[in-house]
Amino acid sequence: MRVITGKARGKKLAAPEGYDTRPTTDRVKESIFNIIQFDIEGRHALDLFCGSGQLGIEALSRGAYSCVFADMDRKAADIARKNIANCGFTEQSEVYCGDGVAMLSRMKKGRFGLIFLDPPYHTELISSALSKICTLDLLAQGGIIICETERGIPFPELPAPYRVLKEYNYGKTVIITVTRDGEEKSE
Fold it and tell me: Are 61 and 90 in contact (CB under 8 A)?
């Protein structure tokens, strides 16, 4: 794995050995960043279920202002820290080790312009994380959530002002983008 472009272009990223991570493939990662290329600069990002941290690091390399990384596994969080330091993004990063969904309760409303959700497949984590993000209203107006999941898994209903933008299919992988519209007008 390498950083595709930006300030840290070409930097090699380590992945936890023997760990049950499913790193985002280069093809899917490149597609994700082509989709959001004009929505990265200056945004605060969250890389939940970060694994090696490659999605958040790529966002920082492309001009995101900061990134919060979270993973339940200590080995993964340690690898993410090493990758962040190797790419020179320590000052712009926070790394949490623990239950990422529970950690969301400590985040500020509307804090993030980009949120990457790439939990382990065959779990309910994407639904839990989306529910918590929407309930706590952590996505900034016009922000984007990038959800990576496997084909055939039902996507949860989203409460207004959140809505699905588009779905992209890459073999067994599905990328679903979600946004937060402006405040609804009261009658």
Answer: no
Return d(Cα 45, Cα 145) in angstroms, integer: 10
pLDDT of residue 17 exceeding 90, the answer is no
| Maximum CA extent, the chain | 56
What is the domain extent for residue 76? Answer: 28-180
- 17 belongs to a structural domain: no
3-state secondary structure of 139: strand
**Axis crossing angle, helix 74-86 with helix 54-61, rounded to the nearest 10:** 20
Q: What is the mean pLDDT of the chain?
A: 92
Rounded to whole angstroms, the Cα distance separating 35 from 13 reads 22
pTM tops 0.85: yes
Start-to-end Cα distance in the chain: 51
